[in-house]
Amino acid sequence: PSSSSNEATEATRKANEKTENVRVLPAKLGSSDIVYTLAFPSISTADFQFDLEKASDIIVEKAEEFLPRLGTARLVLVDLSHGSKILSAVKAKASRKNIDAARFFTFVGDITKLHSEGGLNYNVIANAANWRLKPGGGGVNAAIFKAAGTDLEAATRTRANTLLPGKAVVVPLPSTSPLHNAEGITHVIHVLGPNMNPNRPNCLNNDYTKGCQTLREAYTSLFEGFLSIVQ
Ligand code: AR6
């Protein structure tokens, strides 16, 4: 890497340390002990237009519920910018509830480059998918499929062709994928969240009773999937 990209990496790492209070643990404690780390985006809150306050409550509630079952494994909520409203809201609510900040924290960066550019050791990522589990479409889905290459499309197809709202599917990432090589990612968990955008399929027309229920189910499916990898 050029010296300018090294500087960028250092700057990103420092920015994360400063504004996001990240405590990055080594991924390897001993020769075989890995600190399993799931990096996940906020499901449904951008293209699917889900309310941020309600989503942040659900993320914190579900993280609190699953942490005791996850041993030393970590849950990391990721977004692209330091101005992210969902990261601020989750961070504030998690700290009010005294949740262990070494095992559940927020991190700023592109979810496909958190190791190479942010210095975070992670091995599993969640994708805010579409119901057809297709690449493209913008947002984090487009970024993950692009970075993972065709390996992810093929591996996804062997597991599922479609996904229902509230469900998740765990896809082992072949070691030939650039995401496996460059970032150390071994699994992608596709999650389909509730949709409040009238221009997307299955819009819930502002029905937040159903929407919150489906978002809770989505995080339950995601964290159960992560748990199955950790165990
Ligand atoms: N790294 C980290 N976070 C990201 C990245 C990235 N590269 N890109 C976006 N985010 P969205 P949704 C954040 O819209 O609302 C797709 O087209 C973003 O800021 O990706 O569940 C699918 O095909 C936000 O906080 O997902 C579906 O059709 C979060 O990721 C639909 O959008 C989720 O934003 C799903 O919509």
CATH class: Alpha Beta
Structural class: alpha/beta
Helices and strands, in order, run as HEHEHEEHHEHEH
Number of helices: 7
Overall mean pLDDT: 90
Strand order of the largest sheet: 3-2-1-4-6-5
The portion of residues assigned to helices is 40-55%
Q: What is the CATH architecture assignment?
A: 3-Layer(aba) Sandwich
Head-to-tail CA distance between termini: 36 Å
CATH topology: Leucine Aminopeptidase, subunit E, domain 1
Number of strands: 6
- Ligands bound here? ligand AR6
Strand content: 5-15%
Largest sheet: 6 strands, mixed
Estimated radius of gyration: 17 Å
* Structural domains: how many: 1
Low-confidence stretches: 1-8, 17-21
Overall shape: it is: globular
Question: Could you describe the 3D structure shown?
Answer:
The protein has 231 residues and is an alpha/beta fold. The protein has helices spanning 3-20, 52-66, 85-96, 139-148, 150-159, 178-183, 208-230, and strands spanning 37-41, 74-79, 104-108, 124-128, 168-172, 187-191. The protein has one domain (3-230): Leucine Aminopeptidase, subunit E, domain 1 (3-Layer(aba) Sandwich), CATH 3.40.220. The protein contains seven helices and six strands. Helix 2 (52-66) packs across helix 3 (85-96). Residues 1-8 and 17-21 have low confidence and may be disordered. The chain binds ligand AR6. Residues 41-48, 78-80, 86, 110-112, 128, 130, 137-141, 143, 193, 200 line the site of ligand AR6.
